[in-house]
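Notebook entry, structure prediction.
Reason for the run: the old model in the group folder had no record of what sequence produced it. Starting over properly, with the input documented here first.
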Amino acid sequence: MTNIKVEVYPALEGDCFLICIGDRKKTNILVDGGFASTYHNYLKPRLLEMAENGEELSLVIVTHVDADHIEGIIELFKENGTAENPLIIPIKEVWHNSYRHLNFLKQKSVEELDVKEESILSGIISKSYVEPSKSRNNPNKGVSARDGSTLAALLYKEKYSWNNAFNGSAVNLNERNFISLTSEISLNLLSPDSNKLKRLEKFWLTELRKSKYDFKLNDNILFDDAYEFYLLSQKDEHQVNESKNISYQKEKTSLNSVLNKKMIYDNSVVNGSSISFILEYKDYKLLFLADSHPDIVRENIQGLVDTQGYIPFFDVIKVAHHGSHRNTSTELLSLIDSSVYLFSTNGKKNNHPNNETIARIISRKGTERRLIFNYFIENELLANEDLKKEYRFIVEFSDEFEIKVIEI
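New structure, fully documented this time:
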């Protein structure tokens, strides 16, 4: 018995994972929170149960600002109250990169924002609207933006320990890539780095300067709210169009035809800012890839191999970006492997998981692999019994309303 348990929550097309490590005194790590409905229907009851048993969340990791990852986390902090007097569960530390952590281009101005600049930021906030997720008993009727309702504002107001492992700066592997949570538990950062965060800041600055070319950047709290709501309201054009050219999924699919498809890499600056990491406990290794880009993950794992003789075989790999074909490359898969690949999606958006990703994972000879899904997914490759025998993989689906538990 290794005392590692990964709870995978029904998060529609999103991510929400609770990693529980240990027996008597547990270390609990929450990675993303899915949508508001994920929190209210599934996560909140579990957290209340944990709190009754004297447990806490040792770390909450918000991988990036996207509704299907952050919305449930916002709901948690709205209801949890202050760090000193939590109403749901005690939370020791939060990792979350907000505007205040993007310091590369920011020239801290001693000048206050002028009236026009304040109006621009307030306008971004007031115009933003977060679409409600569609799920049973959904308490979220749609979130209209307002001052102080972002995760950044809640963390700041309620005095949570925020990026404390990074001295209050950005979660950035160029500043610190190895963090010890306990004597036996550590996290090795794979993303983001300074370059990925700089791209995100330039993206934000470009938006501001559409309205005022010499927009002053400073630490006014309006920036945090406007930044977060702006990112939440964005649509990734490449992702929206991702499934339009996948006509072969409507026809009989051959593995070779899928493998011969040319890869188009994810270029989203928001996904590129994802916090991805290796979690290690004793001799066990879990790889959580959020929506990260495959280039930076491969580069940093290769660095571990070259400098430490690291063996990149993991007990679990959480597949990047819900199985998007733009985030799992053959180059990355030539370096890493696992007996367990975890997919988090209900399959109802962008044809996730894409056939290319499934084909790239299963087509390699070698170890037996379990492909675990937190929903039932209709897919021709996954249902092909001949492929299962030839490439030695099995498929596990979950019920729509089931919390999938993986014990390692």
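Summary: The chain has a mean pLDDT of 89.
The old model has been moved to the deprecated folder.
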